[in-house]
Amino acid sequence: MQQIHGTQIRAARAILDWSQGDLAERTGLGVTTIRNFEDGFVPRGKTAEIIRAVFENGGVEFTEREGVRRCVDEIKILYEPNSCREFFNDIMQTIRADGAEILACVSSYEVFTKSCDIAEKDGIERLKKLSNFAKIKCLVPNTENKEPALPMVEFRQTNLEPVGPSQYYVYGNKYALVMSHGRDYYRFVVLQSPSLAYSFRTHFLTLWNNTTLKSSSIKS
Known about the structure:
By secondary structure, this protein is an alpha+beta fold.
């Protein structure tokens, strides 16, 4: 994830017409902390992450070269038969630009491997390359028995809440809904929406952090 700078904070506040006090209230930080950050002091701990999350949830995103822009929600539908390859390429392109984690909440290990196009000849190598840019986390129901041999992916099983039928990925500022069409075909509705991505990232991490039952060590 790209580092944000004080000049971007000021610009983002201007876009949303927020004062330093408004930002402090929304982040739970002090006005002095906001002022110091904007004046060039490097914030401690997760201060920058908190500020970024609040702005992104408010509809602003940070771009390369210390840029800022208002987000415009975009919807893209990826159709079979090449949807899985196109979806993987979209994840790679987004993560290379924005960083952050890749989060998948699906109904089975099979859905994960097929939706990421891993079954193809070069699938494992492409997944390894993707893992160089971001951590990959995947939640499946605890009814799943055999974890795929993918050491670059951290799997966990959960019994806290059914994972299906709404299966999704979150990466960057995007939320992608996964819909199966038959056994081997998938369709993806990809929404570039900071607010949706934030909501589903929060949903995923709540499940993830409260899951005590981790996936088995059995490998295929």
